[in-house]
Amino acid sequence: MSATPAVLRDLHTRMIRIRLFEEEAGRLSANGSLPGFLHLYVGQEAVAAGVMVALREDDQITSTHRGHGHIVAKGGDLRRMFAELYGRSTGYCKGKGGSMHICAMELGVLGANGIVGGGIPIAVGAAFASRYLGLDRIAVSFFGDGASNIGAFHEACNMAAVLDAPVLFVCENNHYGEYTAQHRHQRITHVSDRAAGYGFKGVRVDGMDAEAVYEATSEAVAEVRKGKGPIMLEADTYRYFDHHGIKGLGRIPYRAAEEVEQWKARDAIDAIEAKLVTRKVLSRKKIDEVWAEQRQNIAEAVAQAEADPPASPDDLLTDVYTVSASSNTGAV
Ligand SMILES: Cc1ncc(C[n+]2csc(CCOP(=O)(O)OP(=O)(O)O)c2C)c(N)n1
Ligand SMILES: [Mg+2]
User: Fold this and answer.
1) Which of 65, 153, 154 to mutate to test the pocket of ligand 1 (most atoms within 8 A of CB)?
2) Of the ligands numbered here, which is closest to the C-alpha atom of 178?
3) Would residue 16 count as lying in a domain?
4) CATH number where 159 lies
5) Mean pLDDT lowest for which of 18-32, 123-137, 169-183, 245-259?
6) Would the CA dihedral through 7, 13, 16, 20 be positive or negative?
7) Which residue, judged by its Cα, is nearest atom 7 of ligand 1?
8) What is the β-pairing status of strands 167-173 and 231-236?
9) Ligand 1 mean position to 314 CA, how many Å?
10) What is the CA radius of gyration of the chain?
11) Mean pLDDT, range 241-260, rounded to an integer
């Protein structure tokens, strides 16, 4: 399915929202306003936007430690997301999850996950459950090149295959697991080659091209929704900032400045803006307006989140365990 002007505009806006969210979160973290680690998604925006625009609203996703971009692209409310990062009671998890554990069931976001690879089997379970319930929604699991070395990845792929689970595995191959280059952590170049080992299809796409990601995802989703089993989509992409935080290269010289610059030269937002202009979908002036509007949205969301009340110690034990009536021992 090729991208209509409306789809191109949608991809563009979602990518800008992600970039601005991440840059602002990075600044707030660097100046000490936000607690904890932040794994920023800047550079990878085309993947989240391309996949999410190709999904239906009721489709479900599982995310990762680098998950803000997925949730923003799935329609995450910016105020509730910033509130979660700030540890406010108005956050998606009442301020108890933080950056790596945002969960928004109403958006079909079954959780980001600080455990590398942890979301992959959850997506398979969700996909199986949807089919069991007679729903034709699918589940998408995002994960990185590093996560594809984790046991849970392999078990989840095998199980999805034998169950013909309606799940799309999306590998964001940004070529690093923390500070280890891909060629040093695995002996394959394309993670999607691993799909064949479990008996399903693996495809690759340029993860710096949102339209290409949208098209490849649309095709894959149509097949997965038919119930013929999983597909793995590998997006070739790159993170601009360090593994965590907003510094570019970090303290340890694990990647060259020239490498970062080469990827930035292929920036996905610049690329879609060039398309929008050449195809006469948006003028430069309109593009500037989109940026200004989204900047305003981010500023308002941050101001609201900052003014929101912090998570209350009284809520510490709520939403933590589910205790059924029959097994209620009174212990929570
Ligand atoms: C089970 C587990 N092992 C190790 C870690 C520490 N860790 C956090 S992120 C990360 C690298 C993950 O790499 P990748 O899956 O490629 O994701 P990326 O950070 O590149 O987005 C590691 C090893 C963890 N959080 N969980
Ligand atoms: Mg990686």
Assistant:
1) 65
2) 1
3) yes
4) 3.40.50.970
5) 245-259
6) negative
7) 116
8) parallel
9) 32
10) 20
11) 86
Which residue reads 């999410």 in tokens?
Answer: 52
Would you say 53 and 7 are in contact if contact means Cβ atoms under 8 Å apart?
yes
From 147, 156, 149, select the one nearest 127 (Cα to Cα). Answer: 156
Reference 60, options 148, 166, 146, 177; nearest CA is 166
Domain membership of residue 84 (yes or no) is yes
Residues 181 and 220: beta-carbon distance below 8 Å: no
204 in a structural domain: yes
Question: What are 167's strand-pairing partners?
Answer: 139
Q: What is the whole-number distance in angstroms between the Cα of residue 177 and the centre of ligand 1?
A: 6
DSSP labels for 199-221? TSEEEEEETT-HHHHHHHHHHHH
Asked whether residue 250 carries a pLDDT value surpassing 80, the answer given is no
Distance CA 69, CA 64 (A): 10
List, chain by chain if needed, residues with CB within 6 Å of any ligand 1 atom. 65-66, 114-116, 143-147, 174, 176-178, 243
Q: How far is the CA of 300 from the centre of ligand 2 (A)?
A: 32
pLDDT digits (tens, 9 = 90+) for 127-144: 999 999 999 999 999 999
Q: Is 241 left (phi over 0), alpha (psi -120 to 50) or beta?
A: beta
* Tally of domains within the chain: 1
Which two structure tokens, joined as six digits, stand for 27? 């600044």
pTM for the full model?
0.96
Q: Is residue 321 part of a domain?
A: no
Sign of the CA dihedral running 99, 103, 108, 112: positive
In terms of residue numbers, what domain contains 284? 5-315
